[in-house]
Amino acid sequence: MTQPKPNMSSRELLERLVSFDTTSALSNLALIHFIQDYLAQYGVESQCISDETGGKANLYATIGPQDKGGVMLSGHTDVVPVKGQTWSSDPFTLTERDDRLYARGSCDMKGFIASALAIVPQLTSQTLHTPVNFAFSYDEEVGCLGVRRMIDVMEGLPVRPAMAIIGEPTSMKVMIGHKGKRSVRVTVTGQSGHSAYPTEAVNAIEYAAELVAEIRRIHAEFKVNGPFDDDYRVPHSTLHVGVFNGGTALNIVPNQCVFDFEIRHLPQDDPEALLQRIQGYAEQQLLPQMKAVSEKVGFEFTTLSGYPGLYTSPDEVVVAFARGLLSEDTGVSKISFGTEGGLFSERLGIPAVVCGPGSIQQAHKADEYVSLEQLAACDAMMGRLVERLVSSGD
Fold it and tell me: CA-CA distances (angstroms) from residue 65 to 53, 71, 325?
């Protein structure tokens, strides 16, 4: 792999970044090493924070004074798979058509990372009153997993960033909140038997279905009773069952069924309380019926992933700061999809907003793209960031 060139534009950087297949199931080290080499050209030291296998890594770097909190620009380096999707061009080659740049990750969210890296020459050639921190993570797409190791390290820093801009695609609008998420797998163990004698067995699928119906009832309660926050497209917490598997043959009463469900909750709703309610229904309402037939039955709940919601008060300094970097102030809003911002806020106390190029409507699908206009708008935001940090003590 050739070394990065000096003074690369955001488009040139994006072209390089998308050429690395950083699907979450694969390593992101080639991309991280590219960024390290790029930063090193300008005398910027960076820290790699690896996973337990050494096959993936976060990257953390600071440009400017080391003794004060700065502005953290945060993005994830992993992307979702392209398998099963029909693309009009190679998903890992940046392709321009109709003023759009197509590639996996162009929108979600290597466009933001490219724009952030493009200002490194300006940041390093001037005296900054306030530092800029880069925080680039792995495995965000599978549950915000990688950033947790970076946060572990950041907890021990003598000085933490004062604010964060998470560059997820928001069409360059400032978002001050998003829902949290909890993903759970339920394994229902019954007792098998001949289907001619179902009363002498415990049908795991049927009891799993009873629990799924309870999850649906809870969702319906939120839909009617709230609480509501109309800043979200779906203004209430939601529950959803997405995977359901069980049984081997029609003439065998199934002894096992496994299903996955998720909770996407408003920041003020407690996912643990919801989970306890669901577990309570299983253990108090369903399990006694099952144990009347056999003691070798039960429910097992396994948390697959989760992240907290984000809520940043409109009065926080980061909100006015981010809005001041935009050429057009469209106010603030909230998004239903999750980001790493909630973890930075909850664990490190770093107030965060979400603002980046492209629309989430173009992410995760075939022919993902970021428009030239959106990338230019992000470049303009980064340019104003440099001006602010050079000209004042913000």
Answer: 33, 12, 21
Q: What count of Cα atoms within 13 Å lies in the side-chain half-sphere of residue 233?
A: 7
Question: Does the pLDDT at position 393 exceed 70?
Answer: no
Annotate 177-232 with DSSP letters as a single string. Answer: EE-EEEEEEEEEE-B-EETT-GGGSB-HHHHHHHHHHHHHHHHHHHHHH----TTS
Taking the C-alpha atoms of residue 82 and residue 104, their distance in angstroms, rounded to an integer, is 8
Please indicate whether residue 340 is annotated as part of the active site.
no
Length of the chain: 394
Distance CA(104)–CA(99), nearest Å, equals 16
Q: What is the CA radius of gyration of the chain?
A: 24
DSSP string, 105-144: TIIIIIHHHHHHHHTHHHHHHS--SS-EEEEEES--TTTS
Q: Report the distance separating Cα 163 and Cα 70, nearest Å.
A: 7
Question: What's residue 313's pLDDT?
Answer: 96
Is the confidence at residue 365, as pLDDT, over 70? Answer: yes
What distances in angstroms separate CA 51 from CA 72, 149, 160, 203, one per listed residue?
A: 22, 7, 22, 41
The Cα-based distances of 58 to 48, 145, 351 in angstroms read 6, 11, 20
Which residue is catalytic, options 21, 108, 140, 229?
Answer: 140
- How far apart, in whole angstroms, are the C-alpha atoms of residue 104 and residue 236? 31
Backbone phi, psi, residue 286, to 5°? -95, -40
Q: Where are the alpha helices (DSSP H) in 241-316?
A: 271-281, 287-291
Cα dihedral 165/166/167/172 (nearest 10): -60
For 333-362, b where at least 16 C-beta lie within 10 A, e where not — what string? ebbbbbbbbbbbbbebebbbbbbbbbbbeb
Tell me the pTM. 0.90
Q: Decide if 78 is catalytic.
A: yes
Out of 15, 21, 78, 340, the active site residue is 78
Query: What's the DSSP call for residue 64?
Result: S
- What does the pLDDT look like over 167-218, one tens digit per residue? 999 999 999 999 999 999 999 999 999 999 999 999 999 999 999 999 999 9
Give the span between the Cα atoms of 110 and 101, in whole angstroms: 12
Q: 285: which strand partners?
A: none
- 49 vs 155: CA distance, rounded Å: 13
